[in-house]
Fold this sequence. Notes:
By secondary structure, the chain is mainly α. The chain has one domain (2-395). It has helices at 2-7, 11-40, 46-67, 76-96, 116-134, 142-146, 150-162, 166-182, 187-207, 209-212, 215-225, 234-246, 271-304, 308-332, 350-376, 381-385, 388-395; strands at 98-100, 103-109, 112-114. It has a three-stranded antiparallel sheet with strand order 1-2-3, with helices on one face. Strand 2 (103-109) and strand 3 (112-114) form a beta hairpin. Helix 2 (11-40) packs antiparallel against helix 3 (46-67).
Amino acid sequence: MFKKILKSYDYSLIIAVVLLSIFGLIMVYSASMVWAVQRYGYESDHFYDKQKLNLIIAGIAFVIMALFPYKAMLSNKILVPMVFLSLIGLFALFIFGHAAGNAQSWFKLGARNLQPSEFVKLTVIIYLSAVYAKKQSYINEFNKGVVPPLVYLFLACLFVAIQPDFGTAGIIFVIAVMIIFASGMSYKNIFKLGFTGVLIVLPIALIMKDKIFTNVRIGRLVAFQDPFETEFGYHLVNSYLALGAGGLKGLGLGHSIQKLGYLPEAHTDFIMAVIAEELGAFGVCFVLLLLGYIVLRGLYIGLKCKDPFGSLLAIGISSMIGIQSFINLAGISGVIPLTGVPLPFISYGGSSLLQLSLAMGILVNVSMFVTYEKKYKGTSNKVKQEPIHNDTNRVLNFRK
């Protein structure tokens, strides 16, 4: 039985994640080596060493979640504490949080930082997927099947927005919208839900307009229109220079000019600009193909999965990776205003990498169940008599 489970894992998906993570580690070193010395006075491999440790921790988390039966997360013993801990973590930021980049979004844990909002993305995916999967029999009863799960979504987005981090709050909201569209509820209820949401959010936005429309955010909008005519366009102009300098083959690994202090924090949000400059179109296409494969493979898994919970999980996780990738790439290329969203698996950051690894572990586990059912369900009397998840749970010594 255990051999059948191992054969059912989607190794192409695992390889894509591993390749992106290793490539990201290499590019973090290349992009940060000068900045670490010039800006912070660290050793040139400071951020590389930290990201290497982040990658080890993330790898362990990935393996755990890939082995952990995803259906166990339907249990209120796991779901309810997860939701409450996420809200407590967001609320605690206002008391114990560390401010950086005009937002109080991090807990300072010695030499490391923890960003709770990154994990809220995954919690929202798990919670909404679980609740709407349980409510399938009455998913179109607006007051009973549609609205209740969204109370958590509203609180999570509100707490993140107050930090203020409107970019992350927006991502969480869009991820939730994708899950809602895939949940099976009628378009009538979706329209009603959207109208109700506007009535709730609009007054809050008017009250918080001074925090929303700050000089920095207005400056980013002006820079988006014409980055060469404002000081706020400095990042974007240098990103253009990096993107344009690489050409087809690039200047060579480690030979970026823009990372020499011209492009601030090149190892985080603008790491793709460094990739384009050093490795050219080939390096960019390598990243885009792997990210695109993960997103499309995740959506395919969601469509093939017969279990509503697994299907919504796969769609939510792949949507999250796709949305973040689009926002990062569109921001550095001037398609949309800059929002400070990291590129999945590539940009430096422990919280982001850990959350993505947890999410990909869940996606791989869902994929394993889909493949197992397709290959082995009904091939023996033992498999015919009992559901797939019961067999797997016993193998993993997990009792639901």
